[in-house]
Amino acid sequence: DADVTQTPRNRITKTGKRIMLECSQTKGHDRMYWYRQDPGLGLRLIYYSFDVKDINKGEISDGYSVSRQAQAKFSLSLESAIPNQTALYFCATGHRNEQFFGPGTRLTVL
Amino acid sequence: TQLLEQSPQFLSIQEGENLTVYCNSSSVFSSLQWYRQEPGEGPVLLVTVVTGGEVKKLKRLTFQFGDARKDSSLHITAAQPGDTGLYLCAGASLTSGSRLTFGEGTQLTVNP
To answer: Can you give the pLDDT of all 110 residues of chain A as single tens digits?
Structure first.
């Protein structure tokens, strides 16, 4: 079984809808991250969490929110999706300076 | 803001050729990682380098960290079609904690 799982893997939604992307990990890492990937822009950090009570904004947090429900679970929400949030979204866990990524969610906002 | 610049952005070569990908910055990093990403999947960690001048080898892949810890290179010997993918470098600084700064990636295609 994969160490970092993401659901759903693909999602198409409409402008204005609320969307939640979920991430679970079995690696036992305290640190978890959410990134988005766009062609030509690389991976950009949205939010990160060092433990259940610690949530931090990344470089592009506007329009997003997160919840760390447990050490193993970190979800990302788009309260009101807009088309420029169409992207690949990755969850990752971290140990020291190394990060381990999930398989990604391809989100399309129409 | 720390930036990592990768070059080239795209690289298409024939099987058996050698290649080098570069990752450069004006900032000093406490460690630097290289990842490979295939279509439809997340990035997979290949190596971490932490000491200036460090060289690590992973089969046909050779990774080097610059003496000043501001740059790194990835050299692939006798490339194979299975090496095709997006190669990403990522650095951690002394002030960023475990947050990583990612380069934009090098898309490598190895043609049979």
So the answer is: 669 999 999 999 999 999 999 999 999 999 999 999 998 778 999 999 999 999 999 999 999 999 999 999 999 999 999 999 999 999 999 988 889 999 999 999 99
> Nearest-CA neighbor of A30 among A63, A1, A53?
A53
Identify any residues that bridge with A95 across adjacent strands, giving them in sequence order: A98
Q: Give CA–CA dist A32/A92, Å, rounded.
A: 6
Q: Cα angle at A67 between A66 and A70, to 5 degrees?
A: 145
The shortest CB-CB distance from B105 to any of A42, A90, A102 is to: A42
Residue with tokens 């439809």: B40
Chain A residues near residue B100 by CB distance under 8 angstroms: 45, 97, 99
Cβ separation A42–B48 shorter than 8 A: no
Helices (H), B15-111: none
Retrieve residue A2's tokens: 């994969």
Distance separating alpha carbons of residues A23 and A27, to the nearest angstrom = 12
DSSP letter at B51 equals S
